[in-house]
Predict the structure.
Amino acid sequence: MPKHHKPAHSNPSSSELSYDTKVVLTVLLLLFLYPVGLILMWVWGLWPTWVKVLISLPVLFFILVIVGLIAVGSLVATHRPPTQVHYQYQYQNSTSSGNYQ
């Protein structure tokens, strides 16, 4: 696993952002524009993989919750009897129980 270190020399005339600037920008974007900061964090590779995964966990958890809710909703919708059949069954039971004298 490669470790990312601050470069020993930096050329101020180059158009690339310095390591410190990338770190500050990524942290600020993670705080204020989380999705954009998350993308930059993975693209720039400033931190070790375990840190990136840890910071990405809320997104993974959110996706799992949404998928779970969709799955449960579709199961409930497909396994529920049609309303008309349910009411007809209740009506037949209520009228047949009243016929006993």
Observations:
- The mean pLDDT is 78.
- DSSP finds four helices and no strands in the chain.
